[in-house]
Write a structure and sequence with these properties.
- Chain A is of the alpha+beta class.
- Chain A is 35% helix and 25% strand.
- Chain A has 10 helices and 13 strands.
- Chain A has a 7-stranded mixed sheet with strand order 8-10-7-11-9-12-13.
- In chain A, helix 3 links the parallel strand 4 and strand 5.
- The relative contact order of chain A is 0.16.
- The mean pLDDT of chain A is 95.
- At the A-B interface, strand 2, strand 3, helix 2, strand 4 and strand 5 of A face strand 2, strand 3, helix 2, strand 4 and strand 5 of B.
Amino acid sequence: MPELELIAAIEAALRRPGKRVLTGPGDDAAVVRAGGVAVTSVDTLAEGVHFTLATHSHADVGHKALAAALSDIAAMGAEPGEAYVALVLPPGASEQAALELVAGMDELAGEAGCAIVGGDVTGGPGLVVSVTVTGWADSEEQLVYRSGARPGDLLGATGALGGSECGRLLLDGLEAELAPDRRDELLARHRRPVPLIAAGKALAGAGATAMIDVSDGVATDAAHLAERSELEVSVRMADLALAPGVDVVAAAAGRDAAELGATGGEDYELLFTAAPGSRPTIEEAAAGAGASVAWIGEAASGSGLRLLDAAGQPVTLRGYEHLAG
Amino acid sequence: MPELELIAAIEAALRRPGKRVLTGPGDDAAVVRAGGVAVTSVDTLAEGVHFTLATHSHADVGHKALAAALSDIAAMGAEPGEAYVALVLPPGASEQAALELVAGMDELAGEAGCAIVGGDVTGGPGLVVSVTVTGWADSEEQLVYRSGARPGDLLGATGALGGSECGRLLLDGLEAELAPDRRDELLARHRRPVPLIAAGKALAGAGATAMIDVSDGVATDAAHLAERSELEVSVRMADLALAPGVDVVAAAAGRDAAELGATGGEDYELLFTAAPGSRPTIEEAAAGAGASVAWIGEAASGSGLRLLDAAGQPVTLRGYEHLAG
């Protein structure tokens, strides 16, 4: 199918009007009504690196690429606005596959209140999807940066950790004795992550001082918060809320469950800090947005990441030594 | 070099502050002060499809990817704001190559008044660069869409056509008797296209009714104007201003020079319509922005593209029949 016809078919599939959108696909550029502050993030998925088509449908890939970018908008406490999609199709890619990918993305866009309003479709050496999402807030004061943590702040994490990594291990062929529903949940955590838009806005409004989404794993992302906030962040491994089934999968893989929860990426939960006095407000706000909160550590003067075992003693995870201050 | 270190090196190389930028790279998302309307375009270049590293340096690739996206902003009459870059590096890509690509992009960003403030760097199956650029205008009234042409409007094109396609032919190994300087000009037209930011704003301010950048070739891009404006656009092939050397290269390739000028892509000139009465204002505004204007056709009731020879008779270019109304 010629490129221009495919683009027209994609445009026809994207008829969701964004509330800020003055002109969507079809002109030299998309035009949106602007105001306040714009918050923009880019996420890119490449075949063979971030996914394989043996274990992901095209719709999964579309969903996941948009989810990763939306999760960054959530972690700023902003409201999703518009998405711009660069789609690179390998030789022999079918029109059907491209449209399924866009449909998977569009379904999530609808759930997240985001409009896909522009992009580019080209041939290339393999399947690559890059999504740029712009979110909006009335003012910078409504946003939460990675840099705002203060000594004495508590470290919290929404939801449950390690599920996406377990899903990845299962897709890679790991055998584990799981009920079919549980197994499906873990696969879905990996293939169809849910960006926590409402929770991000709720946490921002309830006084979170710093926030980041858990894309690289709690240990690495906590280290990012520590670095940007110029202090030390400690994580109590025993207090991590693990996704149901992580214990079984970790055992099957010969790994420690808490270590898997601390290092597994792509959970797209929110990791944040808040003053101890904000704790009840934070919990209530998160619950109102459908998210649970586990308090897993704290911020202190110093630098780097400190991982603690159940007895409060420092733990070293192999490969993570460089994150210590 | 690990991905995070490369990202840090790229961030360190991008120290150009944008006037709207509140937070650049390093957080979950970039944050900019917004207002009026935001105008956003995406362009993607993939190795083996849009360029080869045998004929393009990494700096050329960075320049060209940003130039293509900026050209769309120019064609809206908007002012460039921020660029977001997705960089996909193939196995074995060097840090040096990635930094050269970003440096080539950053140099053009500086010339165009654009700030590179976010992005993503990942591995992938081949070199892919996708650039999302946001431009700004105070209001939608300042912008020029593809859809605004009216019957009786004149069709104009800035600068000179066919140069980029000739550069491509020369890079592909075509032998043509050109002075070295002329040859270098044509190669530069292909490898380092210049987005016409100032001319775009000037033409928009001087009353252009519709505008598009010449990325697919004048014939195809005039057909886009015709389709979006719901009228017929005619192009007088004999009136196209051809880049110096196009006659020589066309002869060497056994092609008609005007046909090469009408169909060659990636010139990134601006193609626009204007009421006959705006002609002097348009010419003056373009000259003030350093651009010449050739009047090459007109818009009329009807539909599709009409190509005319020097005697005013319809011409059919092979492969372009479907663009007729």
